[in-house]
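Put briefly, the fold is written as integer tokens. The lines below illustrate.
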Amino acid sequence: MSETLPAQLGCFDLVIVDEASQSDLWALPSILRGKKILVVGDDRQVSPDGAFISAGRIQELKDRFLGDQPYAAVLTPEKSLYDIASTVFAADKVMLREHFRCVPLIIAYSNRVFYDDFIQPLRIPKASERIDPPLVDIYVKGGSRNAKDVNPQEAEVISDEIQAILDSDRFAERTIGVVSLLGADQAKYIDGVVRQRCDAAELLRRRFKCGDARIFQGGERDIMFLSMVADPTNCKAMSGNMFEQRFNVAASRARDRMYLVRSVQLADLSPADSLRRSLLGHFSKPVGGQDDERQSLIDECESEFEKQVYLELFNRGYRVVPQVKAGAFRIDMVVEGANDTRLAIECDGDAFHGPDRLAGDMSRQRVLERAGWIFWRCFASDWVMRRDEVLQSLLDHLAAMGIEPLGALERAPTVVEHRTRDSTGGNAPRYVGDGGNVEETTGSLQK
């Protein structure tokens, strides 16, 4: 790196190092070129691998060159630049909470298991982006992990699913990725099977990539497949910081849909295998999931004021969703139109949204506006005294945005689709009982 940078130290006013959790000691020369530095990273994502380096040799070099260095403990090959900066500049550390990549039900796993629910998911997909359900769990009955850490049956299933995605107009333009949760050998095998069966030009257009978690750090795809690889007789517990980092990265790359392809069930895993168990548990009952049967939408409105606004819009044929969760916040209601247009409506009761609450309300609104939301607000007192005038103002606002009546909402979809593939008769898995929520097509299942 030093050869590509100016030789003068401090020659830049600011040096920014992104994905610093992947950078090791060799990145230190870059920050010497800055008067100020900004180090961006995450110690819960994949860090440098210090394997196959003699611990004795490392200690010898530390004793020789870092004897008086107060931070010698973190200046080792397995420590990232982010680890070093977090230690040296601990007092200046800022934690970012807002998440804009994944739909909430996808990032909910990492949020709960690795971030103690600290993350605020702010991306609510538009109609054209939304894929229901966002989670698909495929159990490959009879799938087996061989001596090379390859599960051919899981690879066959993933290949079938990718071909079905490429053939479906529903998934046109969606980008695709595959992560092996157990080493790179499975990823190489899947890559070979997929490229043998699918059109190369189409895979290139979909930015298809297959690998372990490391190659996806800092990246994303619309649709991601996770291959668990392990089978009931070969599923040694995975524990430790390295595996936690890999699972976290793997489970947070999908924007709109994440597939889990597995050959084990919960009963096959030991209690010590907390990572695999937690991932299966999330697909079994996602954090933030909901029952299939949604209660009447009007009952979700939290005040009589909200119900009146909801009914005025609903009776005119607008598509209205009350109490939309966005990160740590809730929007009173959202009106959806064609071509991904939507308006967030806030119905402010005077008793709870007086002048003392204005700054907080506006701060919350600005956070959501950064996530792309457009707001219309109204106080209850204005609604009571000038209802017709205020309602007309709202309708004019909707019309100006191109939001027209679309009819009632469809029944709320399930949040997880469960499937089973039976490969006990050979290497060509076939679908069996699916709970009645999918229909069979050539080589795969689609909703």
About this structure: The two ends are 49 Å apart (CA to CA).
